[in-house]
Design goal:
Elements lengths: L1 E2 L9 E7 L2 E6 L4 E5 H4 L1 H13 L3 H7 L1 H4 L4 E2 L1
Antiparallel strand pairs: 1-2, 2-3, 3-4, 4-5
């Protein structure tokens, strides 16, 4: 996984990785959630990947979008 830069120092996310139609997000509590386009839509995946690469706003995006917040495909 790539380290999430968290440019503002206020995120609950520590790392991420992604492919064409999915993104995995690891939170600072150690839990990792995988989100898939088949469940939350490609537009959300695209937005989340951009925020992850920017190192800012991914945690807020997940928390503000009910479809995303409850739409993870797997958790470990």
């Amino acid at each position: 996984m790539k380290v999430y830069r968290d440019i503002n120092g206020d995120s609950g996310i520590s790392a991420y990785n992604y492919g064409d139609d999915w993104i995995g997000v690891q939170f600072k509590d150690g839990k990792t959630y995988e989100y898939r386009a088949s469940k939350i839509g490609q537009a959300h995946i695209t937005a989340m990947k951009a925020l992850a690469d920017a190192g800012n706003g991914l945690n807020s995006y997940i928390m503000r979008n009910p479809t995303v917040k409850s739409g993870w495909s797997s958790k470990c």
